[in-house]
Give the backbone structure.
Amino acid sequence: MPPRSDHDLARDLAESAGALLLQVRGRDFGDAAARKAAGDAESHRFLLDRLRELCPGDAVLSEEGADDAARLGAERVWIVDPLDGTREFSELDRSDWAVHVALWERGRLAAGAVAVPAEGLTLNTGEATVVPEAVDGPIRLAVSRSRPPALVQDLAAGLGGELVPMGSAGVKAMAVVRGQADAYVHGGGQYEWDSAAPVAVASAAGMHTSRLDGSPLHYNQPDPWLPDLLICRPALADRLLAALAELPSAAAPSRPNHGGVHA
């Protein structure tokens, strides 16, 4: 059999980590915090072990791992979020959590996959994604279900748009690719692992991806903090960027302590 491509590997890793997380989720935990901790730890360990086995020369940047500055000199870096949306993962009736696996290579995102295990779905850069046609009506903005950021509320008010609440950052980004939303606008700050795989998949599907000022997104940086993000249908990019430029709330946020980021 021919060797797997990086696209296939990203997909397989995300799907396998997702299957593991479904098993973890099915265990009897004493509380939600224990379920979250187990999911984060076991998915991280699985992904790290598999990448060490299959790609021993590559570096890894994971939300759950210690950052190694050696990645800055590496040609290939896997950027992973072993469990995106721990809150939703801990609530057994919710499916809006994800696994992110992306490969950065020589200055660009080269491959990526976002698994939504509770839906049995994985979107990846190696398979053509048919994006549904835009629907008539107000612009639909994917937003946090628990704490909609003021930025997105202000944007929706200015554009006459509507908010579509959901969980993890990866699920929000994939909602644009799947035609469930028209844009994912985030101004509260994230880390590279929150958006690398979603941006890779959305870009491969033909979506616009950028910072809120329209500038490019850069990965494998010395500081993995990314202040803001826009993923949207290409036809909406100019309109959204112009509206964002008029909003004071679109100013880049200060960097919180690790773990204080809201998607």
